[in-house]
Design goal:
The chain has about 150 residues and is α+β, with helices and mostly antiparallel strands. It has two domains: about 60 residues, Orthogonal Bundle (Helix Hairpins), CATH 1.10.287; about 80 residues, Chitinase A, domain 3 (Roll), CATH 3.10.50.30. The protein is built from three helices and five strands. A hairpin with a 2-residue loop joins β4 and β5. The two termini are about 15 Å apart.
Length: about 150
């Protein structure tokens, strides 16, 4: 995972523990005061939220415990595509340029041009160098890209 991905997960976990947990505990306490819990929709909704939040906290703690955090800025740029780099590509069919950052699965967001290291395009790019032409199998067929630049930002 990238340094930014780790920071985002830590921020989410902090919010869940310091904001959501207390809010849900308060909601459960207020729902208990209303009486019969068997037919209390507010109580059941709060318990469901509590279960979700606790599950997400456990999931984040597990991911952070097992994560290998890569600080791409501390690695020398050799022009080779590796995890964490930002790569500028030119589609050889239509000459359109695109830029992607190769990140972990949890960080991937195509709207921000952040692609998973396990995506077909990233798998095709890993290990290649600036100037190489890479063929990528897409749902629309084979697409060829030229690697214009690899940057460590």
């Amino acid at each position: 995972m990238t340094v930014e991905g780790e920071a985002a997960l830590r921020e989410e976990m902090n919010r869940l523990k310091t904001v959501e947990r207390p809010r849900i505990s308060q909601a459960i306490a207020e729902a208990r005061e209303l009486g019969d819990l068997k037919e209390n929709a507010e109580y059941h909704a709060a318990r469901e939220q509590q279960s979700f939040v606790e599950g997400r906290i456990t999931e984040i703690e597990s991911k952070l415990g097992a994560a290998l955090v890569i600080d791409i800025k501390s690695i020398e740029n050799t022009g080779k595509v590796i995890f964490g780099v930002t790569v500028s590509l030119t589609n050889l069919d239509d000459d359109k340029s695109v830029e992607y950052k190769i990140v972990g699965d949890d960080e991937a967001d195509i709207k921000q041009n952040r692609i998973s290291v396990n995506s077909p395009i990233a798998r095709a790019l890993i290990g290649k160098e600036e100037g190489d032409v890479v063929a990528v199998h897409t749902p629309g067929g084979m697409v060829e890209y030229e690697i214009d630049e690899v940057s460590h930002v």
